[in-house]
Amino acid sequence: MLPPSSVLCLSELFSVIRRVKSTMEGCKNGSSLWGLIQTERLSNQFHVFVKEIARALDILPLSLLTVTVDIKEQIELLHRQAKRVELYVDPKEIQTRDVLLTLMASEKSMFDVETVKHVFNSVGLKTVLDYEEEMSKLEDEVHKQAGTGGLIVVSNINNLISLVSYAKSMVFNEESEENDVRQVSGSVGKSTSASFNVPDEFRCPISLDLMKDPVIVASGHTYDRSSIAQWINTGHYTCPKSGQRLIHMALIPNYALKSLVHQWCQENNIPLMECSSNAESEKKTCEKVVDHISATKVAIDSVKRTAEFVIGKLAMGSVDIQRQAAYELRLLAKTGMDNRRIIAEAGAIPFLVTMLSSNDPRTQENAVTALLNLSIFDNNKVLIMAAGAIKNIVDVLESGKTMEARENAAAAIFSLSMIDDFKVAIGAHSQAIPALVGLLREGTTTGKRDAARALCNLALYNANKPKTVAAGAIPLLIELLMDDKAGITDDALGVLALLLSCPQELEAIKKSRPLVPLLIDLLRFGSAKGKENSITLLLGLCKDGGEEVARRLLINPRSIPSLQSLAADGSPKARRKADALLRLLNRCCSRSHNPVG
């Protein structure tokens, strides 16, 4: 009979060794590149295994076991070594891992072929088949991590797949693959004429067609990318199948299912990107259009790959990489509605919202600017608000690490507040309006303008008007009207004109004595928009007990000629209001002396 402690020790050793074997098999059968990125984690895992072996051997009663001296000495040596072993990470692997991370964070155009080959050769990737198997293993890893790793891990692996795919095209001559494509295209006529029963699991639940690019949404259901993107872009933010509200709008590629679909297509001799066959006459008619569509598709695919690649870099953890990735997304979202749509569909928004809290000034600035650029596409406004971005954007607006970050936060609020519901949500944030007023005071001309425009949008919702007045906006706006360097006259007038509708705001404006002569001058020399807002302000100030303002107008020798000129030559809106103000002044004047001409 073995002593009980011996049984416990051997049972624990068996458990540890079984886990060591499983981990080693996972390393052997899994992705080599993903294993390289996980070098430190795997090294730490094996270090833990060794420490567990040491603890198990602590309770082994060697003196009670009938073993030879040699075996006893070997066990004691193992015990001593296991107890004093320290964590070891191979410096060469770390160096290679860092090179790989640099490649993942670099522009594709900057890749050095020899560097790529060296890194990939170091983990056993030498042939085209090796590269293809590596991508397949990475796709399997995505499937395994989808439920546990979270968006960051999945994004990292997708980033790695994009890198391997691009590296494969760089390193190898793909003439043989092009020949295969020609052979497949030659058989299109035969295959498309046949009718196939597509398995239900390969059909998109929305279109019921064969999924060419399956993606997983936040609810865990899979759809074809084009169908679910169209669903989301038309204002739906729930899972079509379950009705569950999507907590984020990231579309995670389902590489495992995509691989099965491709395999099924190959087995049934169906081209992977099969389209409906057209008559020969239709093909001739559309010949020129096809070239344009192909070019457009290539451009869109390029943006999509780039977006996925860059988003992956946001999750790398390094401050330098995050800064660079946010900057690249900022530039990519700067032009083109398609770019903005594709970036959002790739899942960039939640990552950018997180980056708003970065301690690195440039990362924060790039993230808020990227969100500003993305918000120009209306559907992205909803995604940004759904991601809970407003709190972080207001934090940047209030205390951003650079003035540019603060100003772009104001511009983002201006863009988001274009939607009526968001005027309410933004105004409900206790610091949003005060922070805009603060930037109105401290910002550059561009920042002041964006802050004023944001306040103008928010003031369209009546509940936000008292908050704007309480934040001290009125005296500051009037001060800015008198500041020739501020450069936001029309925007400041627009905010003041909106604030007239409530008694509290009106009284606050009436108290400013320099305002009336300033508005009279703007009637003569302001822009068309400035004249409209100036006459709106003057008319509002003179109505409902504004006799004091009316008297100030009558005393000023420039007021009547300016109003008469505007009534004759202004815009229809300005003419109506100028006529109304002249009539009001005429009534006021007739009560005391001669009428106004």
From TrEMBL:
Keywords: Repeat, Transferase, Ubl conjugation pathway. GO terms for molecular function: transmembrane receptor protein serine/threonine kinase binding; ubiquitin protein ligase activity. It comes from Gossypium harknessii. CDD domains: RING-Ubox_PUB. Pathway: Protein modification; protein ubiquitination. InterPro entries: ARM-like, ARM-type_fold, ARM_PUB, Armadillo, PUB12-19-like_N, RING-Ubox_PUB, Ubox_domain, Znf_RING/FYVE/PHD. Its EC number is 2.3.2.27. GO terms for biological process: protein ubiquitination. ARM repeats lie at residues 347-389, 431-473. It catalyses: S-ubiquitinyl-[E2 ubiquitin-conjugating enzyme]-L-cysteine + [acceptor protein]-L-lysine = [E2 ubiquitin-conjugating enzyme]-L-cysteine + N(6)-ubiquitinyl-[acceptor protein]-L-lysine. PANTHER family: U BOX DOMAIN-CONTAINING, U-BOX DOMAIN-CONTAINING PROTEIN 1. Residues 197-271 form the U-box domain. Gene3D superfamilies: Leucine-rich Repeat Variant (1.25.10.10), Zinc/RING finger domain, C3HC4 (zinc finger) (3.30.40.10). This is RING-type E3 ubiquitin transferase.
